[in-house]
Write a structure and sequence with these properties.
The complex is a heterodimer. By secondary structure, chain A is an alpha/beta fold. Chain A is built from 13 helices and 5 strands. Chain A folds into 2 domains: 85 residues, no CATH class; 249 residues, no CATH class. The termini of chain A are far apart. The longest helix of chain B is centred in the C-terminal third of the chain and has 18 residues. The radius of gyration of chain B is 19 Å and the shape is globular. Classes of the chains: A alpha/beta, B alpha/beta.
């Protein structure tokens, strides 16, 4: 019969402490704190009788050993088969605790490190772009070697499969924007300018940016994770030793596919958003949808459409480059994969917005009708 | 709390550590195991061998409760895995340790935290105790303590295996599963890893179930060998009975050149050469 672990003081002899029962993990996981307390109270005792132990393991031995102050008591009775546990415990020292040093310069150093890191990222992206361009010069001489199949597959995954979500988001944005503007315009009796606001705002700015944010979240993260896992599983190395440049096989198709798919997605999103705006204008202002559409060409010069498409090409290529860049930097552990994917999405959205600002400055007097 | 304390001792009436009865595994039309039976008693070291696709790994995952067999029962410590309450299963899971083929160390945690995780989960022991115990376990598997702060990504394959073993042993398991314990280690390392498992087994007396392709590991560690072929346990017994069974898989596996070399190095000197002679 196996008994519960117990600490007994022999009252007759006075100072003999007897441990009985099973001192193993299964019994101790319930009673450890209680037993530790009892052991500590008797830690000074000189004579210990452990021959009554029915079972012992390293956890039990360590508990007793620590109560003894990490040395054997002067008199100890121990079963021979339990000797090994104490021998193991005895042979082990302990790990020194690391003292945290106070470093007053740390915030400054961290800031500097971040700046250097940001510079490193920028340099790496430029290097990646350059490498990709150099590697793809082969395609000029032998176009048959091109990754056409991969490009087509990527266009399908990044473009076609995103039609639903971009349409849903675009439509709602159109409705909301139209609803809010209509309220204001009606106050001034300027109902007809709803076409200018929606047309210019959506085609020139909102369509491309919303689309880019959605694609960065949807496809940018996927690209980063995919490349990251390929790095972890050494698939990138396998490509390299076969003499297949990963830039041409993996990165170029993504960049080209995004540069093709993004403008198309932007046209699609803008069109749906305008439709949503027109329907909302019909409800709010009683403006006919046909009337809305026929007023569009006059309010929004065609160059805005080209500007939107051009932004699409640039945003698409940027998202793909950033996503690939972060994918290549992932280290073989789960944390790095998570952090890399997050950084990829956050950075690509930021980069897209910065690029959008650059477009706004460069084309500030193009395509805007002043009345 | 008046539940009986565990009784792993080989005593009359103690159920086998693992008992598999009438187990079927079926993936659509593919039958992997057909009415399979297997029993492992306490303290034994049992190796599962079989060709690729014979379902060794699947069987091990079923013993671990990671997969459920199509039919049949798996009992660990006499308790059925299917139909037991979550609490009972949790108790079983604390009594076994598993060494995965690639170590499966948590890559986000340091070596120390990997080993300490299960101990901390118990919420019984203080940090000082945990630190001492982790160092003890690292000592037992022959890892120097300055490696404790490293991350798994910075370790060599042999060290990953040792640390994974330390993690498997941290709760003093009665049953240890080893999936390809020496795969991916060089001969020298795998030799010393086998010695390590041998030493720990004789010291702690746990039961071992292992899947291995490595004949040297198999010969030097196993008390019993279970050969999986033809969707069942073809033969189960000590190595010398297993190799005498007349079956093409056994011929190829044990009595090829590699097999004979490993067998002739077996501890029983009569057994290796005699067989070698008989086959030639």
């Amino acid at each position: 019969m196996i008994q519960e672990p117990e600490v007994r003081s022999d009252s007759a002899g006075g100072s003999v402490i007897a441990l009985v029962g099973a001192w193993d993990i299964r019994s101790l996981e319930r009673r450890a704190p209680d037993l530790r307390q009892k052991l500590r109270e008797r830690a000074r005792a000189e004579r210990w009788d452990l021959s009554g132990l029915q079972r012992l393991d390293h956890i039990g031995a360590l508990l007793i050993w620590r109560a003894w102050g990490k040395k054997r008591p002067p008199q100890l009775e121990l079963r021979p088969e339990h000797e090994i546990f104490f021998a193991n415990v005895e042979g082990t020292g302990t790990l020194k605790r690391e003292r945290a040093r106070t470093d007053w310069l740390r915030p400054l150093r961290a800031l500097g490190q971040r700046m250097l890191d940001a510079g490193g990222h920028a340099a790496d992206i430029v290097r990646l772009l350059g490498l990709m361009l150099i590697d793809s010069t082969v395609l000029l001489r032998r176009p048959a070697l091109g990754p056409w199949r991969e490009i087509s597959a990527s266009v399908y995954r990044i473009g076609t499969q995103a039609l639903g979500i971009t349409a849903a988001v675009g439509f709602l944005i159109g409705v909301v924007l139209s609803y809010l503007s209509a309220e204001q315009l009606r106050v001034f009796g300027a109902d007809v300018f709803i076409v200018n606001i929606l047309g210019l705002g959506i085609i020139r700015e909102l369509g491309p940016v919303i689309c880019a944010v959605l694609v960065a979240g949807r496809s940018g993260s996927a690209i980063t994770a995919q490349l990251g896992v390929m790095r972890v599983t050494e698939e990138l190395d396998a490509l390299a030793v076969m003499g297949i440049p990963y830039t041409v096989r993996l990165i170029l198709p993504k960049v080209i596919a995004l540069a093709i798919a993004m403008p198309l997605l932007i046209l699609w999103t803008s069109w749906i958003a305008l439709l949503g705006g027109a329907i909302s204008a019909k409800v709010q202002l009683g403006m006919n949808v046909i009337e809305f559409l026929s007023a569009l060409p006059a309010a929004v010069p065609i160059v805005n459409l080209w500007l939107g498409v051009g932004k699409g090409v640039a945003f698409g290529a940027l998202i793909a480059l950033v996503a690939c860049h972060f994918g290549m930097r992932i280290k073989p552990n789960t944390e790095s994969l998570g952090a890399g994917t997050t950084n990829s999405v956050v950075t690509s959205i930021t980069v897209v917005i910065v690029a959008d600002a650059a477009f706004a400055v460069l084309f500030n007097n193009v395509g805007i009708v002043l009345l | 709390m008046s539940e009986p304390v565990r009784t792993p001792d080989v005593a009359a009436g103690t159920p086998p550590v693992i008992q598999i009865k009438g187990l079927w595994t079926q993936f659509d039309d593919l039958v992997v195991h057909r009415d399979l039976h297997l029993e492992v008693s306490a303290g034994e070291v049992v190796s599962l061998v079989g060709g690729s696709g014979s379902g060794k790994t699947t069987l091990m995952r079923q013993m671990l409760g990671l997969e459920t067999p199509t039919r049949g029962s798996v009992r660990i410590f006499g308790i059925p895995l299917k139909g037991s309450s979550a609490r009972t299963l949790k108790k079983i899971r604390r009594r076994w340790g598993v060494l995965f083929q690639h170590g499966a160390l948590y890559s986000a945690l340091s070596v120390f935290d990997n080993i300490a995780l299960a101990l901390r989960e118990l919420r019984v022991f203080d940090e000082g105790f945990i630190r001492d115990l982790v160092m003890l376990k690292l000592d037992m598997v022959g890892i120097e303590r300055h490696h404790a702060r490293k991350m798994p990504a910075d370790l060599s394959g042999g060290m990953v295996k040792r640390i994974a073993l330390a993690r498997a042993l941290v709760l003093e398991p009665e049953l240890v599963f080893l999936d390809e314990p020496t795969a991916g280690l060089d001969p020298d390392r795998s030799e010393s890893f086998v010695r390590l498992i041998e030493a720990l087994h004789s010291q702690l007396g746990f039961t071992v179930v292992m899947v291995t392709h490595d004949l040297d590991t198999l010969v030097s560690l196993s008390d019993k060998v279970a050969v999986l072929a033809e969707q069942r346990v073809l033969v189960y017994g000590p190595l010398e009975t297993v190799v005498r069974k007349d079956h093409p898989f056994i011929h190829n596996f044990f009595l090829g050149n590699r097999g004979l070399r490993a067998l002739s190095a077996a501890p029983d000197p009569l057994f290796g050469p005699a067989l070698t002679g008989a086959r030639r």
